[in-house]
């Protein structure tokens, strides 16, 4: 007999994926260049040439068994050492390779981090708006995801609600900064306040409360924006990183867990992750990709297009009367819809070949997400469609 809970999940497929599929089908009718598809957060800039050159060099000069064989369960030791050294240089940390666990992207990293620090029945808090896949990431471990309501004025943390929900049942807090979907970057003040509250509650409850920091957009931060490294502020932090966005490598599924050396049982957690892999199947990410990213740790793809696109859209949206918190990073913008029902708003936008994601599955109602990781030329062409949509459907 098949498992009912997974069968039930078929009735609640990702809204983002459904909209992306709609955009693809519409593109076959009118040409995809004429569909203004803001649905899917798929990087739109090429990988750095140095990464491609490194891959070619590895394939031409390294032992095929080293490149294509299984790595050790925790990842290739030299790669872990290089990642630790890079993080120490950038953020003033004291990681060693023993604090790094190589994972299949940030999703794989979160899958391990959650299982390291929570038992079935424990609660894990996150903050709206949040990436909707956190639901299955957390709930299918047996832990329970609870969502702190959003501070829609700034999309920083709603600390009053957070303190009320930070009960003795909470084993971990999951944050995402820079944030998908809002594009907001948590400020140093926000992270410091979060750390102070969590430290106080740890002492009050007499047990650890871990911070799981989901950081795939860490490198996509715009000029002048304050972007602190959470592990600098809170000892019990597990940083979950992916190279998918920084190097435009989402299909390679490579990332890591970085265990704060000051956290409880810091020397055990990476090794625990290797045991968790035995039950999740997220083990031994590709050896050649581990070796390649280790050679380009201090590089990124040309991420400047995202800030260009953000500025174009932010200006147009505000000119059209949308309420919108200006993003500080990522490639998402999160304006308030022009009616309360964001699903209805997004359906109307389809008539103008604008594909916008309603906010309901992000834990906030009445907003839409635009993933502007598309060519700037297409962003500019979308403005006419956006103007027609607003003026036709929501005349002032």
Q: TL;DR?
A:
This protein is α/β, with parallel strands linked by helices. The chain is built from 14 helices and twelve strands.
Structural class: alpha/beta
Query: Helix proportion of residues, in percent?
Result: 40-55%
The total count of helices amounts to: 14
Radius of gyration: 21 Å
Strand content: 5-15%
Spans of at least 5 consecutive residues whose pLDDT stays below 50 are: none
Q: What is the string of SSEs from the N terminus onward?
A: HHEHHHEHEHEHEHEEEHHHEHEEEH
CATH superfamily annotation of the largest domain: Type I PLP-dependent aspartate aminotransferase-like (Major domain)
Residue-averaged pLDDT: 96
Q: Reading side by side through the largest sheet, how are the strands ordered?
A: 2-8-7-6-5-3-4
What is the CATH domain class of the largest domain?
Alpha Beta
CATH topology of the largest domain: Aspartate Aminotransferase, domain 2
Major β-sheet annotation: 7 strands, mixed
Shape descriptor reads globular
Give the strand tally. 12
**Distance between termini?**
56 Å
Number of folding domains?
2
CATH architecture designation of the largest domain = 3-Layer(aba) Sandwich
């Amino acid at each position: 007999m098949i498992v009912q809970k997974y069968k039930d999940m078929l009735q609640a497929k990702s809204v983002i994926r459904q909209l992306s599929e709609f955009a693809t089908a519409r593109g076959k009718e009118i040409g995809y260049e004429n569909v203004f598809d803001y649905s899917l957060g798929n990087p739109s800039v090429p990988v750095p040439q140095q990464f491609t050159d490194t891959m070619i060099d590895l394939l031409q000069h390294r032992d095929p068994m080293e490149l294509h064989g299984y790595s050790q369960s925790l990842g290739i030791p030299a790669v872990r050492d290089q990642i630790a050294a890079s993080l120490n240089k950038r953020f003033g940390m004291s990681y060693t390779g023993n604090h790094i666990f190589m994972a299949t992207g940030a999703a794989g990293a979160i899958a391990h981090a959650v299982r390291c620090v929570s038992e079935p029945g424990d609660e894990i808090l996150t903050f709206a708006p949040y990436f909707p896949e956190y639901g299955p990431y957390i709930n299918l471990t047996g832990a329970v995801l609870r969502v702190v309501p959003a501070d829609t004025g700034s999309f920083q943390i709603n600390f009053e609600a957070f303190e009320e929900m930070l009960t003795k049942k909470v084993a971990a807090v999951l944050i995402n900064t820079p944030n998908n979907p809002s594009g907001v970057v948590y400020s140093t003040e926000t992270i410091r306040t979060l750390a102070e509250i969590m430290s106080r509650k740890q002492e009050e409850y007499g047990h650890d409360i871990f911070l799981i920091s989901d950081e795939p957009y860490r490198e996509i931060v715009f000029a002048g924006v304050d972007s602190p490294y959470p592990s600098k502020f809170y000892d019990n932090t597990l940083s979950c990183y992916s190279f998918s966005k920084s190097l435009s490598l989402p299909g390679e599924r490579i990332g890591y867990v970085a265990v704060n050396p000051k956290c409880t049982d810091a020397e055990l957690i990476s090794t625990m992750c290797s045991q968790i892999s035995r039950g999740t199947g997220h083990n031994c990410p590709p050896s050649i990709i581990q070796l390649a990213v280790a050679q380009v740790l201090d590089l990124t793809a040309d991420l400047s297009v995202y800030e260009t696109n953000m500025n174009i859209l932010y200006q147009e949206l505000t000119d059209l009367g949308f309420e919108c918190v200006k993003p500080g990073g990522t490639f998402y913008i999160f304006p308030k819809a022009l009616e309360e029902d964001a699903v209805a708003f997004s359906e109307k936008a389809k008539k103008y070949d604008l594909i916008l994601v309603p906010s309901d599955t992000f834990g906030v109602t009445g907003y839409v997400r635009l993933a502007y990781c598309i060519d700037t030329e297409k962003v500019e062409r979308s403005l006419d469609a956006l103007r027609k949509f607003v003026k036709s459907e929501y005349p002032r």
